[in-house]
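User: I've been trying to design a sequence by hand for this structure and keep getting stuck. Would you show me what you'd pick, starting by listing the structure so we're on the same page?

Assistant: Good idea, let's start from the same input. This is the structure you sent:
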């Protein structure tokens, strides 16, 4: 795994590099002292993962993450920071980072976070997980979390039956509606969810807990 490391403190970079280079499957291939240099390094070095400090001169880690996500869509991004801060955490995730590691526990968490990133898995320290859950629950309480309720009850019924393999005719008979109405619901489902066919509808229904895998 080839790693691009960016931090404006040379001493921190040296320490982080020691942690990473001890591992046989991790290799730091480029170092940068700020966000702008990190972007330049990404253009000239082949890297699988960028480990970025949040607070850096010229471009912050958050700004660099947004640029890198656009420049190199396949590049995974980890934030390495001293800030145990919910606002930074949410901004990092919005910027395209797949993980958030505190410098205070980097010797414990950084290697695991790098490997998780390469498996396309998120990595968050326990306090960050708590913050995300608390934020989600706050949005639910304030009625802001509507993504799970974008479908009407009738659309959910149709989706469940489609995913279970019923034909439009069978669904019409089960729900006592016309075949045309079933087809309209199905078209609405595909459009609302941005899906293409029955297979994708079935996968969505499994993720939404409407049917068992």
């Amino acid at each position: 795994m080839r790693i691009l490391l960016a931090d404006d403190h040379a001493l921190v970079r040296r320490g982080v590099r020691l942690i990473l280079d001890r591992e046989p499957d991790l290799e730091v291939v480029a170092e940068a002292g700020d966000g702008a240099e990190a972007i330049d390094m990404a253009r000239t070095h082949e890297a699988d993962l960028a480990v970025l400090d949040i607070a850096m001169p010229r471009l912050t880690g958050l700004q660099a993450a947004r640029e890198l996500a656009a420049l190199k869509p396949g590049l995974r991004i980890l934030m390495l920071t001293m800030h145990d801060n919910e606002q930074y955490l949410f901004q990092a995730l919005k910027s395209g980072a797949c993980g958030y590691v505190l410098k205070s526990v980097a010797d414990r968490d950084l290697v695991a976070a790098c490997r998780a990133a390469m498996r396309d898995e998120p990595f968050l320290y326990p306090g960050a997980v708590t913050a995300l859950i608390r934020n989600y629950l706050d949005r639910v309480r304030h009625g802001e979390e509507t993504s799970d309720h974008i479908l009407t009850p009738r659309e959910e019924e149709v989706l469940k039956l489609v995913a279970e393999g019923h034909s439009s005719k069978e669904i019409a008979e089960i729900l006592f509606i016309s075949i045309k109405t079933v087809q309209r619901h199905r078209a609405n489902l595909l459009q609302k969810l941005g899906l293409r066919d029955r297979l994708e509808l079935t996968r969505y229904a499994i993720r939404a807990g409407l049917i068992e895998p």
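That's my pick for every position. To get oriented when you compare it with your attempt: Residues 126-141 form the longest helix (16 residues). The beta strands are 2-6, 27-32, 49-53, 76-81, 99-102, 123-124.
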